Automatic annotation (TrEMBL):
GO molecular function, one term: sequence-specific DNA binding
Keywords: DNA-binding, Transcription, Transcription regulation
InterPro entries: AraC_XylS_family_regulators (IPR050204), Homeodomain-like_sf (IPR009057), HTH_AraC (IPR018060)
Domain HTH araC/xylS-type stretches: 172-267
Name of the protein described by the UniProt record: HTH araC/xylS-type domain-containing protein
Organism annotation: Filimonas zeae
PANTHER family: ARAC SUBFAMILY (PTHR46796:SF6), HTH-TYPE TRANSCRIPTIONAL ACTIVATOR RHAS-RELATED (PTHR46796)
Lineage: Bacteria, Pseudomonadati, Bacteroidota, Chitinophagia, Chitinophagales
SMART domains xrefs: HTH_ARAC
PROSITE patterns with a match to the protein in the record: HTH_ARAC_FAMILY_2
Superkingdom of source: Bacteria
Cross-referenced Pfam families: HTH_18
Length: 267
């Protein structure tokens, strides 16, 4: 049985708890997220790399980064993590008073801070508030978030290049981006946003590049990848459908049989 609960101190600070074999989600976070994984295991899969974390781990997930996040319970203990959302508004107010040590956008990748005592202390100081099950007063919440930002900068000054960058994604090569990220199951609006285009411009440019609609192209690319993983890598349909971009196994099986003439289980 899968049970997932989330307790919010504020809209920006939460404690999540998961009990079950596995919980998967695909995300493009609107804000940077600082995570303290207390127990359990978290795997973050991106287009070109992946990270595996187990408690106790601290890591920062950048905004606008596409990733599949897979949480697991381990050792008979539930998966627990404290997450702090570093919103653009909060960071802009912070940097209005301070000059960043580094400017310019860093590569959108997960930054690891495991083992840093000041960060661990900052995140652990939130636990008594969760036990009280009371809302965190706004002034204390602001202090805690500011403390976390300050410690991140002191730990790695290069983090400024990520936290102080507030621009929206610029217009990029659509074909290269889609070939690299087609397996992420996102709304077309979000694909367009990450390519620096409105939905209408994304659809128009997509047709020019691929000579078909985004949805048809995405389905075909995902099925081709699934067929390769099933036939060449000898994987099982239940382990493949999510990773190639389908929401559920039944939809994947139907689309697969429609394209190839046989069920994925036949491989």
């Amino acid at each position: 049985m899968v049970e997932y609960t989330t307790q919010y101190l504020t809209p920006e600070i939460k404690l999540s708890s998961f009990e079950g074999k596995e919980f998967r989600t695909e995300v493009m976070f609107e804000h940077h997220i600082l995570v303290w994984l207390m127990c359990g295991e978290t795997r973050i899969v991106m287009a070109d790399r992946e990270h595996l974390f187990s408690g106790e781990s601290i890591f920062l997930i950048p905004r606008n980064m596409l990733a599949a996040i897979i949480n697991r319970s381990t050792g008979g203990r539930s998966h627990k993590a404290v997450a702090m959302h570093l919103t653009t508004e909060r960071l802009q107010r912070y940097y209005e008073k301070r000059m960043p040590a580094v400017t310019g956008l860093l590569l959108p990748q997960v930054h690891v801070f495991t083992g840093h005592p000041l960060l661990e202390s900052c995140m652990a100081s939130l636990l008594p508030w969760f036990k009280l099950q009371e809302a965190l007063p706004p002034d204390i919440a602001a202090l805690k978030i500011e403390e976390a930002i300050t410690v991140l900068r002191a730990t790695d000054p290069a983090t400024d290049g990520l936290l102080s960058y507030f621009e929206k994604p610029g217009k990029i090569n659509l074909a290269e981006f889609m070939e690299k990220h087609f397996m992420f199951n996102l709304p077309l609006e979000q694909f367009g946003y990450l390519c620096g285009r409105s939905l209408s411009a994304f659809n128009r440019d997509f047709r020019k590049v691929f000579n078909t609609t985004p949805q048809k192209w995405l389905t075909q690319k995902r099925l081709q990848l699934a067929h390769y993983q099933l036939s060449e890598q000898k994987r099982k349909p239940v382990d493949v459908y999510f990773e190639v971009g389908f929401e559920n196994l039944s939809h994947f099986s139907f689309a697969f049989k429609k394209k190839f003439g046989y069920a994925p289980s036949a491989l």
